[in-house]
Amino acid sequence: MRRFIFLVILIGSLFIIQSLVRSIYALWQKHDLLVRSETELKHQKKENEELKHKLDAVQSLTFIEQEARNKLFLQKPGESRVLVDERLMQAVASQAAEKKEHRSNWQAWWELFF
Questions:
Q1: What pTM, to 2 d.p., does this model score?
Q2: Do the beta carbons of residue 81 and residue 73 sit within 8 Å?
């Protein structure tokens, strides 16, 4: 009789332990999910703030004026627009690069400081 009671208590204890282990494991997973969600929330809040700043910048008058000048080719009264050929710009850039390449390192430093 004692062995039977001991066996019942042992089996009951094992079921309780198994239930506790499952519960702890489920809580652990939920905690990981919570941490990941908090991290994602912080990231989304940061992105939201950046987008709000960009929206403020885009709605400013200086940005609107700059876009009107650059993309719509508008100008203020009394101003004139100068168009430069891209080939000319590339030629000037390549000449500047060639001039820099012909100087030695010590000459470049000398020109920088003196």
A1: 0.48
A2: yes
